[in-house]
Amino acid sequence: MRSVFYVAAVLLLHFLLTAMFCVGIRTIGGRDESRFSEAPEYRNGVECPVSVNKEVVSSCDPDLVHVAMTLDSEYLRGSVAAVHSVLRHASCPENVFIHFIAAEFDPASPRVLSKVVRSTFPSLNFKIYIFREDTVLNLISSSIRQALENPLNYARNYLGDILDLCVDRVIYLDSDLVVVDDIHKLWNTNLTNSRVIGAPEYCHANFTKYFTEEFWSDPVSSRVFHSRKPCYFNTGVMVMDLVRWREGNYRKRIENWMEIQRKRRIYELGSLPPFLLVFAGNVEAIDHRWNQHGLGGDNVRGSCRSLHTGPVSLLHWSGKGKPWVRLDAGNPCPLDHLWKPYDLYKGSLIRDHSSFTSSIFLGFSSYLL
């Protein structure tokens, strides 16, 4: 009698595996069952410059606004919302070109990510680049939060090498933000006095806390700021001159500080401090409205926070708490509702079916022993 149950269980297992495989193909390939709704078509106004080649948009087109951001399975929902917000408020959305930097070993392959982006934004001009994580893996030191140790956080250090050489200027954006103003206004930032980057600065912040006591007690290391008046800035929103970046070999300058950090503990916060060491005090100051950051709370608790005073052009959930996580958990912060209108996520049938089949396997496990 036990052998009959065994045969029946094996046949059922075969059926379930076959069904699950078919569901997987249908869910990934079927446009109607995509995890994201298709965004509305956002078109240029009559005042927008017209590309020479309307059929194929090249990243070398001089009329484009270049935006770079990372793309991975963990923050995919945030990236989609960020792109949606950029297009929704852009005066010339068809002139926006998104450069996505994808991790080499992400669970979702670049091909899968590309399909998601294309199905969600059919007319978007974009390109996906693969970031080789071993480029920076040996330079990363431990941080106060494990998420800050993700190699993809350091991809911004390598934009000058990753992006096409014809791209001489780019706006870098984190994936946990939404733009609520015309991105062209940020693009038109003038980087004066040969400055390499522009970002909102916060000179009232306690700059010393971003580095350890060992750093400040070392006269050689701390001397880096002697000829500057350093101010804190958040690297999640930056306008970057890639020509000056490449000419000045700023990637190597940042890597030098990361190598020192590996030998001596001079800071605690992931990818931010090396940027501060290289650029703080020599940043083109952009209006604070372009980075209302810290909405994710601190790096430990992720508690709710309010907006800074003044107008807002960009909302940034830097910190531990992310709006989509708190909204799904039914415990959102008040400002998380400002992110929700840009969210195009509608769930995944793969996850539902996988949970279903897993529960059935558990129910028949005793017959397979």
UniProtKB/TrEMBL annotation:
Domain of life: Eukaryota
GO molecular function: glycosyltransferase activity
Pathway: Glycan metabolism; pectin biosynthesis
Membrane topology according to the record: Single-pass type II membrane protein
Enzyme Commission (EC) number: 2.4.1.-
SUPFAM superfamilies in the cross-refs: Nucleotide-diphospho-sugar transferases (SSF53448)
Predominant location: membrane
Cleavable signal peptide: 1-24
EC top class, as a word: transferase
Gene3D superfamilies: Spore Coat Polysaccharide Biosynthesis Protein SpsA, Chain A (3.90.550.10)
Gene Ontology CC: one annotated term: Golgi apparatus
Pfam families reported in the protein's UniProt record: Glyco_transf_8
Cellular localisation: Endomembrane system
Keyword tags: Glycoprotein, Glycosyltransferase, Membrane, Signal, Signal-anchor, Transferase, Transmembrane, Transmembrane helix
Record family assignment: Belongs to the glycosyltransferase 8 family.
The protein, known as: Hexosyltransferase
Organism: Hibiscus syriacus (Rose of Sharon)
